[in-house]
Write a structure and sequence with these properties.
Number of domains of chain A: 2
CATH superfamily of the largest domain in chain A: Dihydrodipicolinate Reductase, domain 2
Distance between the termini of chain A: 34 Å
CATH class of the largest domain in chain A: Alpha Beta
Number of helices of chain A: 12
Helix content of chain A: 25-40%
Largest sheet of chain A: 7 strands, mixed
CATH architecture of the largest domain in chain A: 2-Layer Sandwich
Order of helices and strands of chain A: EHEHHEHEHHEHEHEHEHEEHEEEH
Structural class of chain A: alpha/beta
Oligomer: homotetramer
Low-confidence stretches of chain A: none
Radius of gyration of chain A: 20 Å
Strand order of the largest sheet of chain A: 8-9-7-10-13-12-11
Largest interface: A-B, 47 and 47 residues
CATH topology of the largest domain in chain A: Dihydrodipicolinate Reductase, domain 2
């Protein structure tokens, strides 16, 4: 096991995912925070932005260039379109680059252009990059130098459906995915919708039929299935800080009982510490994974409609962003995969 | 228009739906609160239980018998199985009886027995009773003397699907219904799950594939369709006080665009003050119907899967319980239908 | 009793207090919404800004001039400094003007300048204006044409201390006032502090020793006392939408028991419908006054330190802003004082 | 530095403080969870009670006797009156005993009897026991075998006032303490008041002038002052899960500016990792200490009343209970004081 300590930089440290990376990496036994960068807050201390870090980390936010320079590993958490140049620079300098944004998630540049309105500039970098769904693509991640960290919703949906699709338990051409995310998922930027009085005691879907995570989810599920899979994806904004619940509806074509299917799930994930297949009688709840890298999955059925209902819960900031990014770093560097992300989720 | 003032009694006034009836009826121009009853709190003032009523209504909680005696109209909000004797008594004495519980919602006594574990004792009362989905069954309600007030989830789902089913816009044998309800829906009784620290910053589905509102919803949708309709119904507990969002997934078989379908919805409900079909670009949000009798409905599509997605929002305590019950009273008595329930939902 | 119907305009209808005025006036038997104005949203419908008003009120936001022109009564809810010209215009045209901002609250122009950085331009208007603490200054309000509606914190503190000061029960030179307000008190404007993820599950004081409501509270208490009163005022931001709790600490110099003092409070306010002095054993809770114009007051003591502790609860948007403003309108017009604001606060 | 690993037992592991001890100790490098006990849930797994521990810790809850037997260190988190026999047993067997309940906090048995209605049975144990306010009584804790862990409110107030009292900056006979606590402070037991719909969007003080933490706070402050100190203590229930803010009002008699006083605070606590004296311009917020053992303190003044206002923030479950208990264990065992409790509080 590799026990080296690496210099790690975070580009876009002032955003929520960036700040969560700071929290995680501060306690990581194999990481040293080399540099934090931010365009909007250069020159300020991260502790001024996030006073929870007062006395623990008072690093001054620097430029992107400095951050790249100082890191053996470089994380970026930026709006789409800004990561490609960073990837190029890291690639030239032989640094591991992990992108928490959307620029290295989609295989197909045309789909990226369709949904994000920008182009893939360096196709060779995209060809090299690996989609960092840790448990599923671990072998590729081990050898990766550019990792596209999955979106939060896609992580929750892909892990929920992987065993069912791989084992042909469900009709894999069409799924209903009803997801609910805490408000940190909308980021640090101010909007009327996330203004406390308008978000508190409120609940509603948004971006119905046009959320940018749709093609990413479909790409991953299609990989699993070996054929083209479509989803009807409806995300909702939940008045809590952290967490995603995805409720996934599928046609059970296996002839198996829900107990059998649960057993298959358990077996599929039996070596995966961060995925917990819940026993019969329990339901995934985002409360139980908060502040942790766990993905809880519960399997249910509606016998009278022969629907299989799979519920997955993650913390969107951890398994859905910074935690999985660090898990990917651990895998790529050959460090203990649980290093730095082995948080026990609080009971309350 | 009938402008009489009626004596109204509430049996089970100490529960949340009962207490909401108190709030509404206190401002109702045609109602006088004749008596409030409660088994557990007889002898106490309603204002001791709910100090928000201090000085406004300090009636002492009396027995069920007294409540029936004093009312021209009798509402009951009780656990299932307890309303049939009250209905009988009201029927004998010629009083209008409106049941907010489950005893008069299902046509078929066997289904009631299957889901609630009790029997229909007086089939003739059930034969006389009317299902109080106000906008849809108004004509029957006008002549009713026993009204089974719909459940909260069933109200939100039935109003969401009525125009689609009546106009054959969707495949009407199978629907996915993903609903989310505020915690008042779980009632006043204490449970670990609704203990603040375990409910706050939490979210999860419950009773998957076995919620008692399932047969009620299926019965109503089957009435609309003229054939047997099944649903896959997954309710979730939402950390807010009031409100239900139902996200309903249906197969669009009409060949119509979402704009056309929205127009059909608007036309279907054009005379219904309490149902608001939202314009294109808006999404139903429970925030906008809180404390009111409105049901907001927004229509969406996912073109690439040809799914129609219908979102409905109600306040579970008002349109989902006490408000619709009063609307039914108004209809049955020939009072102005909006009397006493014409609350403007707060902007914030 | 005057039963006329008045044309009422709201300047600044797009803000939270303005929108709450809309809600209240829509149900007011003696008011007709003549015009709503907004600088930022002119030309848009109020229902676009606040979809809870969809179908109920879809008035287009007009200019300030139009709003003044069309109203017999003009409310303004604007940032400080903007109301004086409106007051002048209303004064010239003989319209009743009620200001929900800070421009007509302070007697002394120098104190206004010190705390708000602007000047009193028309001292004669300030001389004419009346401070609209409804229950205390009713007689003056009856004859007023310009009313400065009290701030939310000042309302909660003044009503809490009036009986104690008037009856010389407490040492009236120095009070500790620890107040907590819901987030609507911070308004509709976006700030990092009121961004949901930073406000939810958070709590802290703000503006310690320098909140602009301090001189307003001191002015009112000094009027009550007949001498100069100072307060140490610490407001806190509470993660709820509506409501203020003020916990006021005073030295009991009366020799009376807390029961006696409670009786004096009850007697002082016995004719005041909107002020509820709670019986022994109850504590004011903002939950019980939400969505209503009530002010609940509970009286307590700490015998071992001889401190009197007075707790008051209001809804900052109603009794602390729009509700009291309408109450003042009712008084000034000779309408039934409770008209339009007689909401029953929900039990839950 | 001692790097041994100790067997640690938790009596009352099913309560919230007990469950938080589990979370902390699971990651503690010098602790091995030897046994968890619970009277009500004996035979069940801790992961059934708290599914967040699923797969991480599935220990079966055992009897109190077993727990004592297996631990080198024994924590108890029980209702008052139940810890004395456990302390006796631990004392006989030479185990370190740390009590999170109230039985070993008060020096004076008569005061204990007055406030808790029970008696000190073994005065010699109380004579041996040490009050575990870690930063202040570290030297005594080093040698302790029985430690009474401070209450949550007392911790927040004592740390807020220690530098001011020790340096004679404030009039030390009388303080106003206005505290606000998250709902976990009320424990796992179900009550109407902590039922979600009645606690959410609510706020109010409770136990005014009679909270049991009053004598404990007065005892500690009197120790600091060397004379008898009294406080007027008003706790409030805050609709958040975790955290306490105490706003403390004191008379500044030092002639020093708030900057000077802040410097004295900073100097007093300069070697204390877990106490952060905030710089000018910042205010303690419970958000910034959640899930951590930090106590944030900010110092303010109201110059026109010469009041010093000290605000302290802790996580009631960590520094206010389980975290400080582990800190005390670390001190008593000669382990690195930060071991196992060095959590970085999340930015969001």
């Amino acid at each position: 096991m590799n026990t080296n300590v690496y210099n790690v930089s975070i580009i876009g440290a002032s955003g929520y995912a960036g700040a969560e990376l700071v929290r995680i990496l501060l306690s990581h036994p194999n990481a040293k925070l080399a540099a934090l960068s931010s365009v909007s807050y250069t020159g300020q201390s991260i502790a001024e932005l996030y006073p929870s870090y007062r006395n623990i980390c008072e690093q001054i936010l620097v430029s992107e260039e400095d951050a790249i320079e100082k890191g053996d590993v470089v994380f970026a958490s930026l709006p789409h379109g800004l990561s490609q140049e960073i990837a190029l620079e890291c690639d030239r300098k032989g640094k591991l680059f992990i992108d928490l944004g959307a620029d290295f998630r989609l295989d197909d540049g045309e789909i990226y252009t369709e949904w994000y309105g920008k182009d893939y500039i360096y196709p060779e970098l995209h060809a090299k990059s690996v989609y960092g769904l840790s448990e599923i693509y671990r072998d590729k991640i081990k050898k990766a130098t550019i990792i596209g960290n999955p979106g939060c919703y896609p992580t929750s949906v892909a892990l929920a459906l992987y065993p069912a699709i791989k084992n042909n338990l469900v009709k894999a051409d069409d799924f209903i995915v009803d997801s609910k995310s805490g408000v940190t998922g909308a980021g640090k930027g101010l909007t009327q919708k996330t203004h406390f009085p308008e978000c508190n005691e409120a609940f509603s879907p948004y971006n119905i039929g046009k959320h940018r995570h749709t093609p990413e989810i479909e790409q991953t599920l299609s990989h699993f299935a070996g054929n083209s899979v479509r989803i009807t994806f409806v995300p909702h904004l939940l008045p809590v800080n952290r967490g995603i619940i995805s409720t996934v509806y599928a046609e059970n074509i296996s002839g198996l009982t829900v107990e059998d299917i649960r057993a298959i799930y358990a077996r599929t994930y039996e070596d995966e510490y961060f995925i917990r297949v819940l026993p019969s009688g329990e339901v995934a709840n985002l409360k139980n994974v908060r502040m942790s890298n766990f993905c809880d999955i519960s399997i249910h059925e509606d016998r009278h409609t022969s629907k299989l209902i799979i519920v997955s819960a993650i913390d969107n900031m951890v398994k859905g962003a910074a935690g999985q990014a660090v898990q990917n770093m651990n895998i790529a560097l050959g460090i203990n995969e649980r290093a730095g992300i082995d948080f026990v989720p609080p009971a309350i």
